[in-house]
Amino acid sequence: MMSLIRQSDYENYDYRQFWQDNKRDYEDKSERLAVRKLFKRVETEGKIFIELGCGFGRLFNEYRDFEKIILVDYSLNNIKNARDLITNFLNNDLKKLQNIYFIVADINNLPFKSKTVDTILTVRVIHHLSEPIFFFKEVKRIIKNRGCFILEYANKRNLKNILKFLCGIIRQSPFNLTPFKIGDTILNFHPVYIKKMLQDNGFKILKQLSVSNFRLSALKKTMGLKFLLFLENIYQNLFSFTKTGPSIFLKTFYCEDSGLKDSLNNLSDGVKKFVSFSDIREILTCPCCKQDKLEFLKPGNIYCTSCRKNFKVDDNIYNFRI
Questions:
Q1: Cα(60)–Cα(248) distance, rounded to whole angstroms?
Q2: pTM of structure
Q3: By C-alpha distance, which of 233, 247, 236, 94 is closest to 160?
Q4: Is residue 75 domain-shared with residue 218, that is, in the same domain?
Q5: CB 212, CB 30: distance < 8 Å
Q6: What is the pLDDT of residues 197-246, one digit of tens each?
Q7: Which of 67, 150, 193, 197 has its CA 20 to 30 A from that of 134?
Q8: In this structure, how many other beta carbons lie within 10 angstroms of the beta carbon of residue 282?
Q9: SS3 at position 294
Q10: 258 or 252, which is more confident?
């Protein structure tokens, strides 16, 4: 039986360092390439968007056109860095910033009312979850019917693992459904494992992309970034069906209806019926008891009259970490 992974601690590690000095430029641009493809035909006007596990806001400019944007991370340091990065990126545009919200919370216990979100994105997060089923249930709870859920997961069935297994370098098979543990904080998942959890929770996969397919130090050293991205784009477009990249990106939508065909045909019509909130307090709820019993006290205090938990709002950051 696989032991639980240790929770990643981004309070004692500045996640920005992971991306500094262009050492992961190829991975960053490959992921952006995939995100842009998956965001095609996703409406942004009047829509509520959430990035769960936003880190320091690295991907913000890929979804900045949404009407309301909520960034969620478990790390207070990450959220502070995201707020600062986005504030600078928008050049202190107060009109735009008033529609962007920063929240510290556990993605398995989100402080949002049910059926309130139009689009959800999560990248480089699921591999930190020892029991991702709870995360998928929370996404199901907060997303609206026919809402769009775009996710990335680390793929254990990648080409590198397959070759290592066939050569006897690693013992664990990349073909079974058991998650592949790397170090103390990383789990790689089999595509079938993730697909089943999505389907069990009512999500239909619309598109999948195999991403960072040339993530090898030797290739990054010998080939230029532009050429690698040229190859990456071709691979994503033509060979994603192989699902052999180290990262798999999926575009899904949540459907409560029994008729899949009818839901696909009316996807955009369904989301147009939702009216966006004017104040984020309209969609917040207690992450502990999930009761709509929050009182917003001054200065910067939030109190749940149901379970008597207290939460803080400080410098435009809502802290709902339990």
A1: 20
A2: 0.92
A3: 247
A4: yes
A5: yes
A6: 999 999 999 999 999 999 998 998 899 999 999 999 999 999 999 999 99
A7: 67
A8: 10
A9: strand
A10: 252
Same domain, 236 and 113: yes
Query: What value, to the nearest 5°, has the Cα angle with vertex 264 and ends 260 and 268?
Result: 140
State which amino acid sits at residue 190.
H
CA distance 134 to 244: 26
Average pLDDT of the chain is 92
- One domain, residues 272 and 143: yes
Domain that holds residue 49: 15-276
Q: What angle do CA 8, 3, 13 make, to 5 degrees?
A: 10
The answer to whether residues 182 and 311 belong to one domain is: no
> For the segment 264-313, what is each residue's pLDDT rounded down to a tens digit?
444 444 333 446 888 999 999 999 999 999 999 988 999 999 999 999 99
pLDDT exceeds 80 at position 5: no
Please report, as a single letter, which amino acid is at residue 96. Answer: K
Q: Does residue 9 lie in a domain region?
A: no
Report CA Rg, the chain: 20
Q: Report d(CA 230, CA 208) in Å as an integer.
A: 19
Helix (H) or strand (E) holding 233: helix 225-238
Asked whether residue 146 falls in the same domain as residue 20, the answer is yes
Quick one: tokens of 170? Answer: 């690693």
Does residue 1 carry a pLDDT above 80?
Answer: no
Residue 211, beta-bridge partner list:
247
Residue 273: Cβ-neighbour burial (10 angstroms; 0-12, 13-18, 19+): exposed
Domain assignment present for residue 1? The answer is no
CB atoms within 10 A of CB 102: 23
- Kindly give the residue spans of alpha helices, DSSP state H, lying in 208-278: 217-222, 225-238, 260-265, 267-272
Do 222 and 318 share a domain, yes or no? no
**N- to C-terminal Cα separation, the chain:** 29
176 and 303 part of one domain: no
Q: How far is CA 106 from the centre of its chain?
A: 13
Percentage of the chain beyond pLDDT 90 is 83
Any residues with CB less than 8 A from the CB of 33 and at least 6 apart, and which?
211, 229, 232, 233, 236
